[in-house]
Amino acid sequence: MQKIVRRALTTLLLIGIAFSSNPLKYAKPKLSDYGFFIGDIANQQPSENVLPYEVSAKLFSDYAIKSRFVVLPKGEQIIYQSNGEFAYPIGSTLIKSFYYPADIREPEKNIRLMETRLLINTNEGWIGYPYVWNKTQTEAFLEIAGERLDVSFINSQGNEESFNYSVPNFNQCKGCHVNQNKMKPIGTKARLLNHEYNYPDGSMNQLKKWSMLGMINNLPEISTISHTPNYNDPKDGTLEERARAWIDMNCAHCHRLGAPGETSGLFLNIEEKNKTRLGVYKPPVAAGRATGNLKYTISPGSPERSIMIQRMLSKDPGIMMPELGRKLVHKEGVELVSQWIKEMKKD
Amino acid sequence: MRYLIRILCLILISNLSADDIEKDLQTQFILAEPGDTIIIPEGLHNIIGTLSIDGKKNLIIRGFGMDKSILSFTDQAEGAQGISITNSSNITLQGFTVRDAKGDAIKTQYVDGIIFRAITTEWTGGPKPSNGAYGLYPVQCTNVLIEFCIANGASDAGIYVGQSKDIIVRNSKAFNNVAGIEIENSINAKVYENHSYNNTGGILVFDLPDLVQTKGDNIHIYQNLIENNNLNNFAPPGNIVGKVLPGTGVMILAANNVHIYENTIRNNKSVGTGIVSYFITEEPMTDNTYNPYTSDIHIYSNIFDRKVGLPTLDYEIGQLMAIKYGRTIPDIIYDGMQDPDISAGLCLQNNIESDFTNLDIEHNFENWYSPFISNFSEDKSNFKCISNHRISSNSY
Q1: Partner of B254 for a Cys bridge, out of A135, A260, B215, B278, CB 3.0 to 4.6 A?
Q2: What DSSP line would sit under B113-165, residue for residue?
Q3: B75 and chain A in contact, CB less than 8 A
Q4: ipTM above 0.85 for this complex
Q5: B223-259, pLDDT tens digit by residue?
Q6: What single DSSP character describes residue B338?
Q7: Residue A175 and residue B54: Cβ atoms within 8 Å?
Q8: What is the pLDDT of residues B257-273, one digit of tens each?
């Protein structure tokens, strides 16, 4: 009952806010209000102008499966930037839904949708809005302060994982999506989209598809655009390339110049070449107990003596990395990055 | 219209049960408009995740006093801070306590104009390595004022100002931390009338390599009472602050243009005031823009006092001092590493009851840690201040 009252009040509040300068004025109270999906919205069947996409390297989100969609305003185009990033027209929306199947080994069965996050490009820049799905899976409601939900699923080893899933609040969206104090999409970079996707009408390179649909302007010859590997696929890159792809996707949204993790001097974006800035024999700056009594972020040859691995393995909020959006350990990620550090030559 | 929104907000909030104080505060932080005051109610409030403020202007977050409005993070399950404030300007935090955060208590980053007034950050289980790193933690901020605050139990620094500019820390207390107050890679800081006691080190001024703001400058530490900083160093190993000797009053590490004056520095058993280069950390250095030397350090008109007794024997330098000086350890210890490119090194003037030693590491080279062979110098004559430092009767 309390929830319903709260929701009604939130709706009223949003109507009020629509006339103020509050950034929430770009939000609608329910996911269905946007008309992104046809039929039962829980099936996430995209409307005509809504295109699904996939990124090659993914942020680990407690083994949640994510579906992604892009919507552009009619007749408008993305402008390709020389650094491989996209400049979206005002009114564009990126949609990302998080869900768990009852058994992760059967990913399309018995699905429970947790949340759908919207990233909307407004006159005031990108803004992120979290929508939380109700128990009956008929609707997702805007929850600006986030939400915590108990969830359990059967993992790839056949064991049950139960934990308290956390939907980020409005500020936390920006916590990751920030760059030079501006909010930005992370996943839709050319290098992360430069691979085949299985569309209903056949498989095609995503950049080619976007280009064919007239969604993107100035796209260079696709063969000249780099491809970030799918770190799960050993055939898609060398060990180093895949480890750097994992680190880029899971760490570099904060650990790059202009983002909150820069205070540490640890820069983990895929472009970084300087070994110290990447953590090799780099002492921590403000890690506190998160050092785990270790001296360096990366000790070449010794993942067990590398702070990076110790923080990837932790579930303690004062130690773990990333700081947000993770309650479980990404075993496959830990194995990959550990192997990379293990094979790294000592100087 | 704004009035209506406010009423709706209030209804929305009053509709929440007491357990929802976290969601309530977080909602207010998100919806706040310039000029708003957000009240932290009286009582002990259990908070599970980081409370965050982002992109706000002219806000006051106010409790009913540090003993009355307490945010407890004992059961924190999410987020690395108690409170996080980012990309904002003119934010005042006043009159509340942040207790037992799993990571840092209050971190503010990219904020222009941040006031911490009568805020307590504390870890209630006593000094422990499992406590969070920092209590009050402005980093990459400008116009920072910290006053009438209390910082207790941080496993790194109680009050830590890093990579910031235009800073005042005054009338505050720091105890049971590894570092009481630390100013790191920061510019234009005044630290005065504070009481820093029972920490491992009382007040630290550090410049570290590989950071975005590479260099500190113009740091004034004056009229502080810095005493009994003899706590065992409980920093988790791996942290630079773990190198601070238990029994340190003031430590200047690789910093530049630092003025330490009119302080009372007493009963810190190992080092009253230490002036050392980054070489002493024995850490690798790959940042070629970094200057590891101290330079332009002025130490004058301080009152030193020290009970006769052994320094810490847990650290090599402590053992070395004990062998060389027994139970009467010099108050001011300089590693002698003068920047070859800068003539202004260390100057000493009019310090009361102060003994000095120069480890002269450069010349003693490999032998400096062998007190029987190496030559330490107690001669102050090379370290006179060229300009006569005025003795002020009050702060400036």
Answers
A1: B278
A2: EEEEEEEEEE-TT-S-TTS-SEEEEEES-EEEEEES-EEE--SSEEEEEES-E
A3: no
A4: no
A5: 999 999 999 999 988 888 999 999 999 999 999 999 9
A6: B
A7: yes
A8: 999 999 999 999 999 99
